[in-house]
Amino acid sequence: MEGIFILKIVGDTAVEKITKTPYLEIQSILNLFSNKGYPFSSIFLLEAYRISDTFYLIYKLEKNNFYIVKKILVENYYSKSFVYKKFLKPFENKMYSESLLNSKLYRLDKFYNLKSSKILFESYLKVENKKIPIDGFGSLTLSDSSINGNINFLFDFINLIYNKNFLDGGIEIALPLNFLNKMGFKYSKFLQYNNFEGYFNLNNYIIGIRNLNEKTGIFAGYELENLKIRIDALNFFYKFYVKFAYNILTFETSINQIDKNLIGGYGNILGYLDNSIVCNNYAIITLNYNWLIFYPIFQIYWIDKSQTLYSYGIGFGNQNAKIFFIINGRERKPYLHFIIRS
User: Fold this and answer.
1) For residue 272, how far is the Cα from the chain centroid?
2) Is 215 in contact with 195 (CB distance < 8 Å)?
3) C-alpha dihedral sign at 261, 245, 150, 187
4) What's the predicted TM-score (pTM) here?
5) Beta-sheet pairing, 158-163 with 166-174
6) Same domain, 32 and 113
């Protein structure tokens, strides 16, 4: 392209000059900023137009600060583990652009469950793990004639759930590999079923083997924060489970030919004692609107071949402690759910 170029650069610098080689001028400015300590500077075109034989080019330059990880503080088991030695320690004293650093911190948070928080001090960055070593969850349900509840402990990599109808324990091991994030083992006992599982997590895809009452099968699934899918196969029988949440809507369903589902309570259908409903198939639609400390909630659900049922009520509290007052459509009597998290 021949002609005269009026080159103007705005943003983190101010340049305006007449040139015949605008792209060489741009490269020269990027090299200048790199030598001044901004190796991740970027420049992009805002506007270009032509008047007669003169071309006007307007670019914006961003210095894009870089950060050096001076220290990584972790307060849980990972600090002494293989994961720390192989993944976290080489993270120190390296230079990163902000986007690359955010990507690496996301991997720490998502795949290694470190819940890292960033604190920026000029051109230095300190990564601190704010995760409480023991996470706890408990719920208690009261009705006019009974009381029931469960408790869930999470010790970073060991998970335990217990109530009088259900025992569920497992261990997950984080792996310092990009494609293979976790390996886990799990044991559960409910009703007459003894269930052992072993599985791998490959970038949120789950594949594993289970043994149910000495019968062996396989399962596969996919897990995100707002989406869970799982399919089990055992002796030509199948079990399908899916749950997804979007905004105020949550949908959950299970179609089961293998064992039984234990549902009811805060985990899915409100207005019942925890794990008090035994069924093969179910579907639940929940509408839950959070407004300040209030939680109006409405549920529609189907259990096996039942007619359409519903629960409705209101909750109060925050993320650490909630109380729900619920009336279910089957018994038409009130229940109170108390939920506490550490």
Assistant:
1) 28
2) no
3) positive
4) 0.64
5) antiparallel
6) no
